[in-house]
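[audit] Reproducing an earlier prediction to check determinism. Same input, same settings, fresh worker. If the tokens differ from the archived copy the diff job will pick it up downstream; this log only records the rerun itself.
[audit] input (114 residues):
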Amino acid sequence: QVQLVESGGGLVQAGGSLRLSCAASGSLFKFYTMAWYRQAPGKQRELVAVITPGGNTNYANSVKGRFTISRDNAKNTVYLQMNSLKPEDTAVYYCKAQAGADYWGQGTQVTVSS
């Protein structure tokens, strides 16, 4: 069982920045592929960014060049740096650990005002 706790969401104006954090439990974090997803009201949950144990990353086209996913294995934490935020980035952001099974955090709200 892996527990994930997200933090860092909030309200920001368009063009601003936020950094989300997701702290994982346990001692095997460095072996997990970690990902950020988001779900806007009335829409399906979508993949935002993913980082492998080796540090390879991939992004949704809608966030490329604006968002950066990173990880600190010593802190069991994955981050999502979000710059140049747009109102359409408004959503609940979730982190996921691929650790045999998939484990999800509780989500953190990001609201971008125009």
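[audit] rerun output stored. Observation attached for the diff report: The CA atoms of residues 23 and 77 lie 4 Å apart.
[audit] end
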